[in-house]
Task: structure prediction
Amino acid sequence: MQTSEVKALLFDVFGTVVDWRGSIIREGEREWTSRGMAVDWAAFADVWRAGYQPAMDQVRQGRRPWVNLDMLHRELLDRLLAQFGVTGLDEAAVAHLNRVWHRLDPWPDAVVGLTRLRERFIIAPLSNGHVALLLNMAKRAGLPWDCILSVELARRYKPDPEAYLHAVALLGLQPAQVMMVAAHLGDVIAARGVGMKTAFVRRPLEFGTDGAPDQPDGACDIVANNFPDLARQLAVP
Result:
């Protein structure tokens, strides 16, 4: 692939940059089990995440006005607590648990890989997470973004084309000058559809050792095993 025209890399975050499932399991077992939440944390994380796309569909399809991911996650969490029979948490505790999505841990290669890529490219998230969530996550995890881009700025959830095009325009670039980096094929296909370059990064453990991660198709410009491998393929020293 000719990469000389690529000026910026935009990254999907949940699953691509950070380990959402492992982070929720670890925090649950470390902090919340001691508060009386005797749940299967892997199942809890999986069910919470499973509600993510249907909740955003309500907004995408115009069945409800724009709301950010904290609100969608909280609505899902309230139902999840009832489903798993969790009682006795006060409002402050539930609000704190809901913000676990602000406290997700990066994959082991993420920070070093992003730091290396930043030597040559503008790097920023392009996530369905809102600005405050992404900022809090970056500060905690040490993610070295040049700026924070979010679909909140366009008020369109991915994979709506406007979510990608608005971010590209904010950078003052053309779609072909921007590469979308994601571990999810739908994200890659949507970005490709508006003229962006694409890189698929494998995250085989996103859904655990028994999960079924996304796989790339034959039209990805780059398929990488991790962020340092992406840097290598983009000829970053």
Remarks:
- Residues 69-83 form the longest helix (15 residues).
- The first strand starts at residue 8 and ends at 11.
- The two ends are 17 Å apart (CA to CA).
